[in-house]
Amino acid sequence: MKVGLLACAFGRHSVDVANKRKAGGMHVGKCVCCKTPMEEIEPNVWDVLQVKDAGLGRRYFG
Ligand SMILES: [Zn+2]
Questions:
Q1: How far apart are CA 37 and CA 10, in angstroms?
Q2: Which of 13, 15, 26, 33 makes the best surface tag, with the fewest CB within 10 Å?
Q3: Residue 17: strand, helix, or coil
Q4: Per-domain boundaries in the chain
Q5: In this predicted model, what pLDDT tens digit does every residue of 14-44 receive, in sequence order?
Q6: What is the Å distance from ligand 1's center to 33 Cα?
Q7: CA distance 9 to 3
Q8: Which residue has the higher pLDDT, 28 or 61?
Q9: How far is the CA of 36 from the centre of ligand 1 (A)?
């Protein structure tokens, strides 16, 4: 089985740091396993990228 995807299920994504790029003053990248967008909140500390277009989201979650 794929250990990487199991880690993703627990929120422990593996960012493809080789392909990270700069956007909006911070680094963003994608998980090599599940392609989840990630952002570097601190040096070497990555978190799932927060989707900013809340206008659409509120309709579904509001
Ligand atoms: Zn992942």
A1: 15
A2: 26
A3: helix
A4: 3-61
A5: 999 899 999 888 899 999 999 999 999 998 8
A6: 5
A7: 10
A8: 28
A9: 6
Neighbours of ion ligand 1 (CB under 5 A): 8, 13, 31, 33-34, 36
**Exposure of 31 by Cβ count < 10 A (0-12 exposed, 13-18 middle, 19+ buried)?**
buried
Cα 44 to middle of ligand 1, angstroms: 16
Structure token pair of residue 45: 């500390």
Helix, strand or coil, per DSSP, at residue 7: helix
Give the CA dihedral 52, 57, 59, 60, nearest 10 degrees. -170
Tell me how far the alpha carbon of residue 54 lies from the centroid of ligand 1, in angstroms. Answer: 23
Q: Could you tell me the pLDDT band of residue 62, with boundaries at 50, 70 and 90?
A: very low
**CA–centroid distance, residue 39 to ligand 1 (Å):** 13
Residue 38 C-beta-side C-alpha neighbours within 13 Å: 25
